[in-house]
Design a protein that fits this description.
The chain is α/β, with parallel strands linked by helices and 273 residues long. The chain has helices spanning 7-20, 23-33, 53-58, 75-79, 123-135, 159-170, 184-194, 213-230, 235-250, 268-271, and strands at residues 42-47, 66-72, 88-94, 111-115, 139-152, 198-203, 206-208, 256-266. The chain has one domain (7-150, 174-207, 258-271): Rossmann fold (3-Layer(aba) Sandwich), CATH 3.40.50. 40% of the residues lie in helices and 22% in strands. The chain is globular, with a radius of gyration of 19 Å. The model has no long low-confidence stretch (mean pLDDT 95).
Length: 273
């Protein structure tokens, strides 16, 4: 069973996600897709779709008409997804991705995409997915993979300890094998290159200030909980750190950058024209 996320958390993070994403990679993807769409619509498979945040970001930026295949194990979240505009048709597929990610592919879609997913999966899981994509000559766009960077505008001594503990927790099993965590984007890029894809990566960092204090507080709470699981003897110090950081962020005394990466892979046949 894969990890489940609360709809409220997904809604809270969506503005930061959309602001962070690389428009440059989407433009490259759109240019590569031009003239390659066959049939009546651009077919897209979105893995770990949740309530459709990736759909809401990408659909207005890609050629229409489109047919999106939304894949997630949580039917309740999928039912919240709606087409963001005319010319976008939706298909919802409820499935647990843990068993065989390649089996979730339709087999003929030009694009497979996901957002905030790869840092939760294992290297073996990712290898199976990318092998499936390579077999059918599919482009991929994987956005918002956490890369291990937690940076404050006013560094404090406990920041590095918290970051280290969080990143160790990120490598634990999230239901898809030992998670890649902060290495997800680099591992994905290397495996795509091994399959002959043209690969482009761009930073897609969250940049949080007092205007995103509610998101920041939820994020800090989650980090402290994760860190306390890794180093329980440091729980009191970490909790005090979290309370102090959340107050400072809400007051506008500090800003926070959370590192993410977007990865685009275009199949070798596309490069050959």
């Amino acid at each position: 069973m894969t990890e489940t996320f609360d709809a409220d958390w997904l809604a809270l993070r969506e503005p930061a996600d959309h602001a962070a994403r690389s428009d440059a990679l989407v433009a490259m993807l759109g240019a590569a897709l031009a003239g390659r769409v066959t049939g009546d619509a651009l077919r897209v498979t979105d893995l770990g779709s949740g309530t459709g945040s990736n759909l809401r970001y990408l659909a207005p930026r890609l050629p229409t008409p489109q047919h999106w295949r939304l894949v997630d194990h949580d039917e309740g979240l999928l039912q919240r997804a709606a087409a963001p505009g005319p010319g976008v048709a939706l298909e919802r597929r409820v499935t647990d991705l843990a068993a065989d990610p390649a089996a979730a592919l339709a087999g003929d879609e030009p694009l497979v995409t996901a957002a905030a997913l790869l840092d939760l999966v294992s290297e073996a899981w990712l290898a199976r997915l990318l092998e499936g994509c390579a077999r059918q000559g599919t482009a991929v766009l994987f956005a918002l993979s956490y890369d291990g960077r937690i940076r404050w505008s006013d560094p404090q001594p406990l920041d590095a300890e918290l970051e280290d503990a969080v990143n160790r927790h990120q490598r634990s099993d999230k239901g898809l094998g030992p998670a890649l965590g902060p290495t997800a984007a680099s591992v994905c890029a290397a495996r795509l290159e091994a399959h002959g894809h043209r690969v482009e990566t761009r930073a897609s960092d969250w940049r949080l200030d007092a205007g995103q204090a509610k998101l920041g507080a939820a994020l800090i709470d989650g980090w402290v909980d994760a860190a306390c699981e890794v180093v329980p003897d440091r729980a009191a110090a970490l909790q005090a750190w979290g309370e102090s950081r959340a107050r400072a962020l809400a007051r506008g005394e500090v800003e926070l950058v959370v590192g993410h990466q977007d990865v685009l892979g275009l199949p070798p046949a596309w490069a050959r024209g």
